[in-house]
Structure formats: structure tokens, C-alpha cells
Predict the structure.
Amino acid sequence: MNATVVRAVNAGFVSADLEIAAPVGREVLVDVKASGLCHTDLTMSKFDLGVPFPAVFGHEVAGVVAEVGPDVVELAVGDHVVGCLVQYCGACVKCLSGKVFQCLHPESTLRAPDEPARLTENGTPVTQAFGLGGFAQQALIHENQLVKVPDEVPFPQAALLGCGVVTGAGAVLNTANVQAGDSIVVIGAGGVGLNAINGALVAGAATIIAVDIAEDKLTKARSFGATHVVNSAAVDPVEAVRQITGNGADAVFDFVGTRAVATQGLEMVAPGGGLYLIGVIDPTAHLDVHQVGLIGSQKRVQGVYMGSTTAKRDIAMYARLYLEGRFELDALLSKEIALDEVNEGYEALHDPNVTRVVITSL
């Protein structure tokens, strides 16, 4: 099958002809119909973060079930499915308490080291990043990482549900548990931040403030439902948020991930509120906090992984809300590309007018 492979750290995405195994156990063979480009895949391809190369990336996958392993119970041939990079066993104490995003044995979704690889090139194993490997015509995925969605959801929109949507909206709805009437701040109005605005609307937040340095992104944030926008390149964003809210926001979501932005974010939080860290532009960034001040203000700081999502519940919900016209996905899509245009697709994401790029020609 055709695939896009990264052969070594920072070697770029190149076309390759790979062999894919038949499904065993609870594996599902998916004919990929759409695959989103996420910055996480680009970062992992450029740095040595422990992923063995060569590797197939692509973790926002939508497609049709082509074949199922003998132990699959939730899916059938012909089902439309969305992949999610949250890997979970379903049996550990975290999974049984409903926190599959904190699973203690995510490796259970993969083949054991002594088993034949799912992907090979001329007999040499090829890593399937996150157990998905969606930059390919087909993907072999454990059923725990797949969610059935209605056939009416277009594949490009469906692909976005598995990462950008669950991360952004989930941070608001699951991690922060934003309530009707709350005030929130979204720092970074890119593809994931816009989904946080989507989630805030679903929650019934009264004040939704988008903060960014690009006017084009702020304009789009307003179209998604932001009640206020702040250009942090033109004004002091902390002071602007305080003027809008009076006492700071109940929840501030940092989709950027630098020390300076996180520090500003904490200053925007109202007493008793929370700062939620999602973005990671600078992996070395750290946040200094004054312990007594944090205790006195009762503020909290929390890291967020994949929007604290239970994918089989949340992705199905977002798909339903989309079909009901209550969750914007269409406006996220800016560009559709072919499988051999991944490098060009990532270059396109440098344009502030481009929100999401999705592979649809495979």
C-alpha cells in the first residue's frame, strides 16, 4: 500500500510502498479516507523523542472498516470509524474508574515485540506512531482506539474529531468542567483553541475571550463564538482580561505553551479559578508559582492530556452535535491535500489563514 514515511529524525515525509499485516485479535483494518495534519506528528518527526524510525505518523484518522480480527466485538466491516491516539487497556484501575486517558498499560493496544510487525517495508518493521499510522492508504488499529461515527459525517470533518476536537473541547468540558455562566479565556486561537470555543458554547459559558497575536485568527475566533477578542501583540492581555471580566476568568486555557504565556495565563485567573496547560511550543518551558499566593487565591494549575477524553463517549457526542448544527467543524477545514503532499501541507499551516489541513486523496 502507499504510505508517507519518515525514515530518520528530521528527514521529512517521503512516499513508500509498505506491507500491512492481516488483523489478529482485536485489531481492525481500516481503509483510510481522511487523515489530519497535527503539529504533534511534525514535532515527533523532527526530534528524537523515543519513536523508532522509520515510522508512519498521522493520528487523526477517519475511514471505513475493511476487515476485523477474530476477537473484535464493537465494530463490523463497513462501519465508519475515527481513530484516537489515547491508548488504553480497559482493565487497569485507571480504566475501570473511567480515566482511560491515564491508562497504566497503553502498550496493550500494540503487538508484542515478539509478534510480527503490523507494518513492514521489504520485510523491515516500520513503526506505527501512536498505534495509528494514518498517513497511509490503510491502518491496522486496536478496536479500543476506534470509535464508530454516523455515516453522515464527512470523512475530513470526522478525522478532526480524534485529536484536535477532543483536546480542545475536552479541556473545557471534561478537565475544567466549565459551567453555564462561567467566564473563560482561550490563549491561542488556532485549530485546537477554536475547539475550546466550541466546547465553551456547548457548556453555556457566558464570557469567552480569545487571545492571539494574529488578527485573522481573532476574526475566526469571533465567528466560532468568542464574545471578546484580545490581540496580545497590541495590548497587555492580562489587563484586557481583567477589564472584561472584572476579577479574572474562571478558567484560562493555554494552547501556546511558553513560559511567558503560561505566566500571563495564571495572572488572568480569578480567585478559585484554574489555569489549564495544553500547548507545548517550548518543551523546556517551566512555570514559577508563588506557593503562598497560590494557596491564598485558591488558584489551580493543571496539565491536560487529550482533553481528559473518553474517546468512545466523546467522539460520538461531538459527531452528533455536529450533525445537529451545534458544533462547528466545517470552518476548521482550510485545505485538502494528497498523501504525497504532507511536507507541503505542514508548510501551509504557517499561514495564519490556514486552520487545518487534511489528506483526502489517498
User: Anything to note?
Assistant: The first strand starts at residue 2 and ends at 5. The mean pLDDT is 96.
